[in-house]
Amino acid sequence: MFASGEPVKLSFFETVAGLEKVDAEIIMESLRDEYRERSGGIVLREIAGGYILTTHEQYGARLNEVFRERKRETLSRASLESLAIIAYKQPITIPEIDEIRGAGSRAAVFQLLRKSLIKGYGKKEVPGHPTLYVTTAEFLRHFAINSLADLPALQEIKNLQFEDLEAVR
Amino acid sequence: MVAGVVAEPFGPTEESGENAFTVEWVAGEELRKGPLSVLWTLIEGYQVDIFSVSLERITRDFIAYLQARPALDLRLASDFALMAANLIYYKSRELLPHTENELDDGETPLPPELVWQLLEFKKFQLAAARIREMEEAAGEIFYRPPPPPAEPPPAGEEPLLDVRLMDLIMAFSRVYFRPDAGAEPQKEIVASEQFTVTDKMDWLRLRLATVESLGLFELFNERVMARLEMVVTFLAILEMVKQRLLYAAQQGLFHDIRLSLRAAPADAIQAAAPDSPPGGDTPSV
User: Considering only Cβ atoms within 10 Å of each terminal Cβ, which end of chain B, N or C, has fewer?
Assistant: First the structure.
C-alpha cells in the first residue's frame, strides 16, 4: 500500500498473500483499528474501493501549510450543485439538472468533466438523445470516500423551520 | 470587483403594512445565485413556512429584486427571466375561478409545482453544502502520489499513457485556437472546397498507411488548412478512434498525441461499447 500510491483493492491482498476474501477483510479491519489506536500520523482508509495509507486528519492544518502548492482548486457554487445532483441522481442529463437547479448548467457540467469528476455514460432514449452523466472513480478519490453509499443521505424537506435554513446560507 | 444586490427584510412600513425591502451591496458569489436561490432568500426573509408564502408577494419581490439589480450575470439572465415569467403565469392562473384553499389574509399560496421545485432545489442545495464539507475534510488528508517508474523503459520502446477523450479535445483546441492557425476561405471564391468526414477518414488512412505513427500537432501543421477543414479532420479522427480504427497514445503528459492505424480486422468496427459502470475508472482511448 505504501509503495503503490493508489488505493489497493482487497483482491490484490487475496491473490498475493493467498488469502480468502473474508480473512483478508478481517486482517485489513484489524490493521485499520491498530493504526487508529496508535494515534500516530498514519491511518488506513478505504477510498475509491481500495485501501490506502493516508495522514491522520488532525494534522491536516499543519500539512496544508507545508504543502501549500498542493492546494486544490475548489468548485464553484454552480458546479457543486450540479455535482450533488449528479451524485445522487445518476445517471442524469443536463436538461434534468437544469430543471432541478432552475438555471443553466452546461458550463458547470463542463467544468466537472474537465476535472474528471464526472463522465458521459450513454444517452437517454428521448428526443435529442442527451448524454447521461455519472460520477467517476476520481470523484471518489477527490472526496476521499469509498463508494457512493458513503454519501450522506438526502434530507427530505417537509417541515423545515427557518432556523434550519439559516445554516445553509 | 463585481457588485450586486441582495434583498433583506427591513420591517413593517406604513403604506403596505408588511415588510418592505432594503438593498445591500454584496460582492462576487452572491451575483451567481440562480433564481431558485433568490426565491429561497426571499422566503427565508419572510420567516414563514413555505406553504404560507403569498404568491403575489413573492412575485412582486422577485421582480423588484431583478429591477434593482444593476449587474446581472449574463449567463443567468435567461433563467431569471424564465422564473419571472413563470411566477406571472401562476398569478394569472389564479384569476380563473377555482376553489383552491386560500391563505389567511385572502392571498393565494404558491402553486404546488413551484413548491415542489423549491423543495427539490433546497434538498440538493443542502447536499451540495455537505459535499463541500466533505471536500474540505478530504483536503485535510494526504497520501503519497504514485512514484515515477523506477527504470527508464528499454531503448526503442516508448511508454505510452492512455489518452482520454478530454486530452484529444484539449490538444485539438490548442492547435485550433492559435492565432496563426487555419485560413479563412477567401470571399471571392464562390465554390469553396467541400470537406466531409468520410473523405477525411480516407485521407487519414492514406496518410497513416506509410508511417508508423503521426503526431496530432504534426498533422495539423503540415500545411495551412481552412478552419472548417481542421474541424472536419478532427471529427474524422474521433470517429476513427470510436470505431477502433485508430489508436491514440501519448508519451508523456504534455507530449504530442500520436495517432496510428490499428491493425484491425474488418469486424473490429463495433458500435461504441458502453463505458465501465459508474464509479469505475475512466476508459482509455
Answer: N
> Judged by CB atoms within 8 Å, which residues 132-161 of A form the interface with B?
134-140, 142-145, 147-148, 151-152, 154-157, 159-161
pLDDT at B188 > cutoff 50? no
**C-alpha distance from residue A67 to each of A6, A62, A114, B91 (Å):** 19, 9, 24, 56
**Grid coordinates of A41:** 500520523
Q: What is the mean pLDDT of residues A93-103?
A: 90
Please name the member of A5, A119, A168 whose beta carbon is closest to the beta carbon of B146. Answer: A5
The pTM for the full model equals 0.61
CA distances from B174 to B40, B217, B221, B242, B254 (A): 42, 9, 12, 21, 12
Question: With an 8 Å Cβ cutoff, is A106 touching chain B?
Answer: no
Q: Count how many residues are written for chain B.
A: 285
Provide the residue type at A118 as one letter: I
> Looking at the partner chain, which of B79, B138, B274 has a beta carbon nearest the beta carbon of A143?
B138
Q: Is the peptide bond before A7 cis (omega within 30 degrees of 0)?
A: no
Q: What is the per-residue pLDDT for B267? A: 39
Using CA of residue B80, residue B82, residue B85, residue B87, what is the dihedral sign? negative
Question: Which tens digit of pLDDT belongs to each residue from B15-51?
Answer: 443 444 444 444 445 556 788 888 888 888 888 888 8
Closest in A114, A135, A137 to B281, CB measured: A137
